[in-house]
Structures are given as structure tokens and as C-alpha cells.
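Attaching the record inline, Q. Sequence:
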Amino acid sequence: MTIVLCPLRALVLTVLVAVAGAAYAEPPSDADIDRLFEVSGTRKMVEDMLPQLERMQEQAINRDAAGKNLTPEQEHQIRAVQNASRRILQRSLSWEEMRPAYLEIYKNTFSKEDILAITEFYASPAGQRLLEKTPLLMRNVVQVMGAKMQPLMDELEAELGQTVQTSPDTGKRK
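Structure, as predicted:
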């Protein structure tokens, strides 16, 4: 007996088989993902974030304390809190602490095939150049976006100024 499928049923069947196959794709192993982390410098990126976060936190604390007449005891307490916070950040966001979360995220996001292909790319000269030049690329993107955003921010500020000057009761300017 020959089974003839109409084109729509054949398409639906093909899609279902493809989706089912993707859903059951072999997950990457920890070793596969660790190799990707190695060639892409993921550990270094995570470790390099800590000093940046510490500086941001210190700047926020200093801004908050700026202009206040703090006693030496209050300054000491602020520094103690800052040091405790730094230790918590270092412990909580260390590579040793973050690696299991990263492994889980990558396993839930990529198949083994994906991880191997991405690793192969990052191990290549082009992939290494991409990794090397990404910080410069991001600085350039931020610079361009800042230039594009400034007129928009000026416009928004002007709009906000008009809104604040308008009385909510009459709609007339104050």
C-alpha cells in the first residue's frame, strides 16, 4: 500500500520531525563548554568584571557621602561596609562561584553541535581577532550611540521642561 501525503501534511510532518530532533539534540558536556570558555576567555571576562563592579560601587558610595559632614566614625563605618561589600562581591561573583551557573546557562541555550562550532570559530584566527577587538568595537559603538542619543536627550529634557511648566489644572503655563 502506498501512502500519499498532501503537501500541507508533508510540510507539517517535516516541521514536527525537525522540531522534535532539535528538542532532543545532544546536550554539550561540561568539557565541551569548558573548552569554549577557554578559547573565548570567558573566565578572564568574568574576573575582569569584579574590579569594574567594585569601582562602580565605590563611586556610588562616594557620591552618596559627598558634601556631607561625616564624623571620622561614620567614615570608618562607610569604609567597613565598603570592604565587606567588596568581599561579598569577590566571593559571590568569583569564577569558581559563577562557573556552574554559566555551564547551566550554556547547556540550556546551546546544543553540543552549537558549542563545538562556536568553539571552533573562537579558536580560529578570525575568532581570536573578534575577541581581541570586541572591547574597541564596544567603545566605538558606545561613542556613536552617545552622540546619537544626546540630541534625543536634549529634546526629551525640553519636553519634560514644558510638561513641568504646564499647570495640570488648566493646561496653561505657570
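Residues 26-153 form one domain. The mean pLDDT is 85.

More tomorrow.
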